[in-house]
Amino acid sequence: MTESAIELFNIKKDYPGVVALDNISFKVKKGSVHGLLGPNGAGKSTTMKLIVGLIPPTSGQITVSSSIGILPEFPPLYGSMRVKDYLSFVYDIKTIHKKDSNKKSYVEQAIVKCGLESVSHRLIENLSRGFKQRVGIAQALVSNPDIVILDEPTVGLDPEAIEDIRNLILELKKDHTVMLSTHHLHEANVLCDDVTIIHQGKVIQSGSIEELQKQFQTGFVVVVLLEGWSVEKEKNFLFEYPGSKIRVIENVGDSTKLEISHIDKDYLKLWTKWLSTNCDLLSFEKINLTLEDIFKSAIKGEKR
Fold first, then answer.
1. CA 272, 278, 280 angle in degrees (round to 5)?
2. What pLDDT shows up at residue 50?
3. Strand 177-182 to strand 245-252: parallel, antiparallel, or no bridges (unpaired)?
4. CB 33 within 8 A of CB 22
5. pLDDT tens across 147-195, in order?
6. Range 60-74 average pLDDT
7. Of the CATH numbers 3.40.50.2300, 3.30.70.2040, 3.40.50.1820, 3.40.50.300, which one belongs to the domain with range 218-287?
C-alpha cells in the first residue's frame, strides 16, 4: 500500500457566516503529483493554507509526513533584493532554529532546479513574470523539503512561461511529493497522477485519473470517420439504442466524423454489421473520458 505524504480527515473551516470547507477528507501519496481541482472559490487555497499551517481548521485532523515548502498564490517576493540574496534570506528564516552548514549548496540547488542561473544576480523587480514565478518556486524548495505545495503555479503567465513551469513541476516529481491547485483541467491532466475535485467546499471525487475514468465512463465512447453516411437516412438506426448519444464532429465532402457515447459491446456488434452494408468505415477510435469530462460529470453528479 502506498504511503501517504498528506492526509486530511473531516476537515472543516468556518469563517463568520461562511462554511469554506465542509468536512473534507483525502490523501496525497508520497512521490506523486496531486492536483487539487475546482472552480474559483471552491476552497482550494484555504485547503493549502490549512495543510501548511498558515490557518487553523475549525475541526478535523491533518497529518503531514515530513517537511513542506509552499508557493502561495501571491508569493512574498522582495523586488529590491537580488535573486540569490533573497533565497539565502528565505533559507535563514526557514532554518532559524537549526545549525546547518548546507546553506550554500541548498541555495545553489534551488537556483539550478528552477533554471535561475542566468538571473541569480539580478534584482527580482526587474524579472519577467515567468522568472518571478520561478523565484517563488525556488523559495519553496530552498530548504529542500520533501513536499512542495504550489497554489495556482501558472496563473497569469504567457504560454511559453506556462510550458516552462509545467516542465519544472515534472522535474520536481523526481525528488519531491508535489501538490498543486489549479482550475486549468488540461494542466492537471498533463501533470497529475491523482486529483481531488472540490466544489463549494466539499470533496466531490478523489483518486487517480484512471480510476475516475473507470468510475464515470459507463460505456464506450468512440470516434468514427465514415464515407457515404447521411444523418437523416441513418438517424433512426443510430438513435434506437437506449441512452446512446451521437454527435457530428465535422463533415468534409462525403466523409463524416461522429462521436458516439453510451454504447456497449452488443451495440458495437450491431452497428459494425450495419456499417458493412450501408457505408464505409474509414477509421475507428475508442477514447477515454478527459479530465474535463470527469470534472463536469462530478460537479453535476452524473456519469457519462
1. 70
2. 95
3. unpaired
4. no
5. 999 998 988 888 888 898 999 999 998 899 999 998 788 888 889 999 9
6. 92
7. 3.30.70.2040
